[in-house]
Amino acid sequence: MALLDIEAIRRADGGSTVEMNKHRCPICDYLIENCQCTFGGSAHPDRSVMKRVVKDHLYLLDDVQLKHVIKLEEFWRTSSSDEEYTKCYELLKQRAAQREAGPWR
Fold this sequence. Notes:
Blueprint: H1 6-12, H2 17-20, H3 48-56, H4 63-76, H5 83-101
């Protein structure tokens, strides 16, 4: 799965490349097609606070930005040593799998 789905962005904007270019990553503020969030190291700023704020306020994002953040989350695959967090995460994954299996299963 590609991190950036240009075609999905174009479909969301009615096919316009000009429209696509107005969407910025809510975390790094680059155009989505040039997002820097998958890069790390000393040459890149720490965006952990902005990342947390964006995740806490997803209602402020447009559809394209929201889909982009979902792709970033899939890429990052965050884990935690916190037992309660891990249990909640496993429950959420289980519910998602049941939802995708459909009501007839």
